[in-house]
Write a structure and sequence with these properties.
By secondary structure, the chain is mainly beta. The protein is built from 2 helices and 14 strands, in the order H-H-E-E-E-E-E-E-E-E-E-E-E-E-E-E. A 12-stranded antiparallel beta sheet has the order 3-4-5-6-7-8-9-10-11-12-13-14, with no helix packed on it. The chain starts with 22 loop residues before the first helix and ends with a strand.
């Protein structure tokens, strides 16, 4: 097996998501990493073992001293997980060691749905021995309901997470709802996301704050009776991102439309198992 280093060039305005590859964090990763949408994930394991260089503001490696994880099923309906990690202090960067504790509980409701809780705590150790260029603690906690109907027609999730931090910022919370209705011939989806300016989830992945995202989506499915194509579908995905206006932005201080996007997609699945996708994207930054 040959390990190939992967390099990603980010041309976007915001941080990009790069998946976890360390084996310790990959086992039972769905229990810890399935909370929230990709734009507001309360826990992102790659944050552990990374610190901020206080001189340059860049990410640098932070040695992990030890770690322990306990996860599994209590019974057929209840899963629990507990993770604790300790990193080394960095005197050259004026940073203390940090302890990371993550707890996740998932309880099945009905045959396929579940409700889950997550709590994340990042705690500075011996913080008074260092300067105040870091937060002594950062905590996030919340609930998520995941819907899956027995006939698979309705799926989705809804959550609320709140950050507990030393700062005095407003709106220290995020809320997300996604609802999908599936039929053989079509698929309809609605999603909205609110990320407050004060939702500082230091151990999560939150590339953009102070926004309200609205995103409907619709797709039609076709199943030819003959020919090389076994299935194809055409869909449209709409996105409106509003700037809430509570982040002291002087350019856009009030609530208003910040970005919008439209994506048209046509996907083909061939009987040979080959597939083809054609996309047309329109994005506007206001």
């Amino acid at each position: 097996q040959v390990e190939v280093d992967r390099q990603v060039t980010n041309l976007d305005r915001f941080e990009i998501f790069f998946p976890e590859r360390r084996q310790f964090f990959l086992e039972n990763a769905d229990l810890f990493g399935s909370f929230g949408p990709s734009r507001a994930n309360p826990f992102f394991s790659r944050r552990i073992g990374v610190a901020i260089d206080t001189a340059t503001g860049q990410n640098i490696q932070n040695t992990i001293l030890y770690g322990a994880r306990l996860s599994g099923k209590v019974n057929d309906k209840l899963r629990v997980g507990l993770l604790n990690m300790q990193t080394a202090k960095q005197v050259e960067n004026d940073l203390p060691s940090f302890n990371y504790t993550v707890a996740a509980i998932e309880q099945r409701v009905g045959q396929r749905s579940n409700i889950a809780f997550m709590g994340v705590n990042k705690q500075a150790i011996d913080a008074d021995d260092f300067s105040s260029s870091f937060n002594k603690y950062n905590r996030v906690a919340g609930l998520e309901y995941r819907l899956a109907s027995n006939d698979n027609r309705w799926i989705g999730k809804s959550n609320y997470f709140r950050a507990f931090t030393p700062s005095d910022k407003v709106d220290k919370f995020t809320h997300f709802t996604q609802l999908v209705y599936n039929r053989r011939k079509y698929r309809a989806e609605w999603a909205h996301l609110y990320v407050g300016d004060g939702y500082d989830a230091e151990v999560g992945f939150v590339p953009r704050k102070d926004i309200l995202l609205l995103s409907p989506e619709f797709a039609l499915n076709f199943y030819p009776q003959s020919g090389a194509i076994s299935e194809h579908n055409v869909g449209v995905d709409l996105r409106w991102i509003y700037k809430v206006g509570k982040d002291d932005n002087l350019i856009q201080p009030d609530f208003g439309l910040a970005d919008m996007g439209v994506e048209f997609c046509w996907r083909f699945q061939f009987k040979s198992t080959a597939n083809l996708t054609a996309n047309i994207d329109y994005n506007r930054v206001l």
